[in-house]
Design brief:
- The chain is 56% helix and 3% strand.
- It has 442 residues and is mainly alpha-helical.
- The protein folds into two domains: 142 residues, Up-down Bundle (Vanadium-containing Chloroperoxidase, domain 1), CATH 1.20.144; 250 residues, Vanadium-containing Chloroperoxidase, domain 2 (Orthogonal Bundle), CATH 1.10.606.
- The protein has a two-stranded antiparallel sheet with strand order 1-2. Strands 3-4 form a two-stranded antiparallel sheet.
- A hairpin with a 2-residue loop joins β1 and β2.
- The protein starts with a helix and ends with a helix.
């Protein structure tokens, strides 16, 4: 009787275990998972305080890796091999091994992002949570897809390591020319050194060179009242006086603050100075990309396509803009006004730590707006809630171009750029954007 009871108990245990265990399920990857990965990267970049040019590089490479993995099976999007500078085809996926390309793509995005940031542990928290879920759901599919993702990651990292970024980390600081009154000087309150003076030596993604879209020359520095430069200098001063008449309530001030996007803002309290952390201009446009992808119910391929091509244009826009910034090396309005007009004047926005011409936000916004218009269409109405985490309200736009125009003019309202830097910068960015849209077959 005992052996029979034992057999019955064993049978019950097997039955219970069998009922508890579920068959392996296909791991579904949604567009929201890519949004979550990108959002985590933005969160970490804010925490780590990356400069705007460096942040643009951090966005581009993970997106390209994800895009190239998905392009293998896509009927809508083609590989970027032959378009991106020095980029060779990624290792091909063996379709007989049950690789989930969408899963491989998001794994590659997270892993490469983790390699490009400082606070790797923050990305690891998201990864560990997702990896545990996927392993339970379908361990074989997860492991196979992860193994393939790491082959692509190795390939992308080898290409990435050849872009001259590491070499620029060891190059000299920018030398300030204090004898020339037209040249840039560090600005208060922290008087930081010029950020990324060698960024024009980073390998572009699609541009032939950093100089390809060199803008028109800025007005020559002059304090003669009839000169174009003096006229633009006075415009910055007078606009700030006008829009602050009624305190902080003007629409112009709201616009300036909405598009501030300065990761280097320093606040002084007595003897203490600390940073208030914000997104970069590129991160703001990546946020707009997310808004557009969600509004159009873009699928995984469409979402990754939008992120990738927008981030490539943003990265090249920074290379183009920074090339001009350190060539022209023009004095900021704050310095010129304090020295020659009003020693107590302060801009509405804190002046970022690099030369004035051209306006980085104008160039980047121009480039991003072209790419997004090509992808999602003109007259694309959207509500921009990107700045809500920083205590700023939603602003609405009838198109990407109208958003880029507002982003550009915000620099005049903020008191940190002359009109030439804004208008020529916006043109520089749009010209670059149209070139890249054509090269990307948009």
């Amino acid at each position: 009787m005992k052996p029979l009871k034992t057999k019955i108990y064993l049978l019950l245990i097997v039955t219970v275990l069998a009922s508890c265990s579920k068959p392996a399920e296909h791991i579904e990857v949604s567009p929201e998972l890519f949004h979550k990965s990108v959002d985590k990267v933005v969160e970490i970049m804010i925490h780590d305080i990356f400069s705007p040019p460096v942040a643009s590089r951090i966005f581009a490479y993970p997106n390209i890796a994800a895009y190239e993995i998905l392009a293998q099976k896509s009927t809508k999007f083609k590989t970027l091999q032959g378009k991106l500078n020095q980029f060779e085809s990624i290792p091909k996926a063996d379709t007989t091994k049950g690789i989930n390309l969408e899963l491989s793509a998001v794994i590659a995005h997270m892993e490469i992002s983790k390699n490009l940031i400082f606070s790797e542990d923050r990305m690891a928290v998201l990864q560990d949570s997702l990896y545990a879920q996927w392993e339970i759901k379908n361990k074989e599919e997860f492991e196979t897809s992860k193994e393939y993702a790491f082959k692509v990651i190795k390939h992308i990292k080898q290409w990435m390591d050849q872009d001259n970024y590491n070499q620029t980390r060891t190059m000299s600081k920018f030398t300030v020319d204090t004898d020339d009154p037209s040249r840039w000087q560090p600005t208060p309150p922290s008087y930081m050194d010029g950020i990324e003076p060698h960024w024009n030596q980073i390998r572009p993604f699609l541009l032939d060179s950093a100089q390809q879209f060199m803008p028109a020359r800025h007005p020559e520095f002059s304090l003669k009242k009839e000169s174009k430069f003096y006229e633009e200098l006075m415009e910055v001063y007078n606009v700030s006086q006008e829009i602050t008449k009624n305190g902080d309530e003007s629409e112009e001030i709201a616009i300036a603050r909405f598009w501030d996007c300065n990761p280097f803002v320093s606040v002084t309290r007595g003897h203490f100075m600390f940073a208030t952390k914000k997104i970069s201009p590129g991160a703001h446009w990546i946020g707009i990309t997310k808004i557009a992808a969600r509004k159009t119910n873009s699928d995984v391929e469409e979402t990754v396509n939008a992120y990738t091509k927008t981030s490539i244009a943003i990265a090249d826009a920074f290379i183009s803009c920074w090339d001009e910034k350190y060539r022209s090396n023009l004095i900021r309005p704050e310095t010129a006004i304090n020295q020659h007009l009003d020693p107590d004047w302060l801009p509405i926005l804190q002046t970022p730590p690099f030369p004035e011409y051209t306006s980085g936000h104008s160039v980047v916004s121009g480039a991003a707006s072209v790419i997004l218009t090509e992808i999602f269409g003109d007259e694309f109405y959207f509500d921009d809630d990107t700045e809500i985490p920083f205590g700023l309200p939603v602003r609405s736009f009838k198109s990407f171009y109208s958003a880029s125009s507002e982003a550009a003019i915000s620099r005049l309202y903020g008191g940190i750029h002359y009109r030439a830097a804004i208008e020529n910068g916006l043109k520089q960015g749009k010209d670059l954007g149209h070139f890249e849209a054509k090269k990307l077959d948009l």
